[in-house]
Every structure is written in structure tokens, then in C-alpha cells.
Specification:
By secondary structure, the chain is α+β, with helices and mostly antiparallel strands. It is about 50% helix and about 15% strand.
């Protein structure tokens, strides 16, 4: 199968993740008990397959969103009979986390803000709370997410030392911190990005992520 045909048959990972998150959010909203907020893997697969998503795409979305803290995996000890013999097992379910809920409902005064202690985020218009206590202007949200994806590729690179990974992560975090400001410091972003984009020669697998960031970060250049 050609690459072009393969791409046509595969759904964008973010679309699968969004559909999964929305399914769990709707379940959270409609449930009358905490226990019913969670869904089994079979329930999730059934719902997302109706949207045309493949099983491997669904499983990948679950894994990704757990790693990023958007959904939570919960395990419960159970007992059942197999051929009249009582057997112990484990029931695994998934539910949306507070981070996932904020994705749909927006900032809340009940969110632990840590870095922004003493600041009522809900009073600031045009910002979104992302991940672990980060805020970003809505117009820069896609760029913020692309930077996150780039950081993930660099962290898993086999060609970089731990010291290099730490330095690159710090550079990316510095750019991301600017994206929460009403007027990001263009000089800081431009200077760091000029150094950061050169990493593609050492980490070729990051080329796609570099290109995505470059397409949006160019508004701060010059």
C-alpha cells in the first residue's frame, strides 16, 4: 500500500484523542454516580468504532492520554466463576481527569494553580489552562501543543545525551512560557528557536515536528 493511500485510511491521532476524550466527558456529565463515570475498554472501542476509528488507533489514543494525564486508568479487584470455580480478576476502566474536564469547560477557580498562586485565572480572558499548571493564550494553543510534541520526540531520542535533552527541554519550556503572555517577547522566542531548530540535523526523526512548530512560530520571527 502506498503512503498516500495509507494516510487516507488513517485518522489523525488528535481526532481520535478528541473523540475519546469527548466520549468520556459526556459519560462524566451524564453519570449519576462516580462509578458510572468510568468506561471499560469494550465500551470505548464500541463508541469510537462507530465513528470509523480503528482498534489500534483507539488503543493508542488511550495510552497517549493516560501518559499526558488527560484520562485516568482505574483498577478494581473482582471475583467471578469459571467452570464453577471462584476466580479473582481485575476490572480496568477509564475516566476523564480534571485536566480533560478543563479542556471542555475552561479554567476553574478550583484548579490547583501553583505557579500562578494568588492569580485568578478565570479573570483573564482568552487563555486556556493546559497540562500541569500551564496557561496559554488561545491563539497560540496549536503552537503550544506542537512544542509539546517536539519535546516528546526529543526526550525519546537515542542520539541525544541526557544533558542535551535537559537543555532542549528548558529551551522549549521557555518558549511555551511566553505563549501565556498577552505580548510574548519576540526576541526571546526568536533567539531560542534559531538554536533549537538546528537540532533536526542530529535528530532527523524530529523533522516533522520542527516543521509544524516552524509554520506557526514564524509570526514571532524578525
Amino acid at each position: 500500500m502506498s503512503k498516500s493511500k495509507e494516510n487516507q485510511n488513517n485518522t489523525s491521532p488528535d481526532i481520535v484523542r478528541e473523540d475519546l476524550l469527548n466520549f468520556l466527558y459526556q459519560k462524566y456529565k451524564k453519570s449519576r454516580s462516580v462509578k458510572k463515570q468510568a468506561a471499560t475498554i469494550s465500551e470505548i472501542k464500541k463508541a469510537l468504532k462507530q465513528k470509523g476509528h480503528k482498534e489500534q488507533e483507539i488503543v493508542g489514543a488511550i495510552s497517549f492520554l493516560i501518559d499526558r494525564g488527560w484520562i485516568k486508568e482505574e483498577k478494581e479487584k473482582t471475583k467471578f466463576f469459571i467452570k464453577d470455580k471462584l476466580t479473582e480478576g481485575e476490572k480496568i476502566t477509564y475516566r476523564i481527569s480534571d485536566i480533560g474536564i478543563v479542556h471542555f469547560e475552561g479554567p476553574s477557580k478550583f484548579i490547583s494553580q501553583n505557579k500562578f498562586s494568588g492569580i485568578n485565572i478565570t479573570n483573564i480572558s482568552g487563555v486556556t489552562v493546559v497540562g500541569n499548571n500551564n496557561i496559554v493564550r488561545n491563539e497560540y494553543l496549536d503552537l503550544f501543543n506542537y512544542l509539546d510534541e517536539l519535546a516528546e520526540v526529543l526526550r525519546s531520542s537515542a542520539t541525544l545525551t541526557d544533558e542535551e535533552k535537559a537543555d532542549l527541554q528548558s529551551d522549549i519550556e521557555t518558549i511555551k512560557s511566553q505563549l501565556g503572555k498577552q505580548n510574548p517577547n519576540r526576541k526571546v522566542i526568536s533567539l531560542i528557536w534559531d538554536n533549537l531548530k538546528g537540532i533536526v540535523s542530529k535528530v532527523p526523526e524530529a523533522a516533522d515536528k520542527i516543521a509544524k512548530v516552524a509554520s506557526l512560530i514564524k509570526i514571532f520571527m524578525g
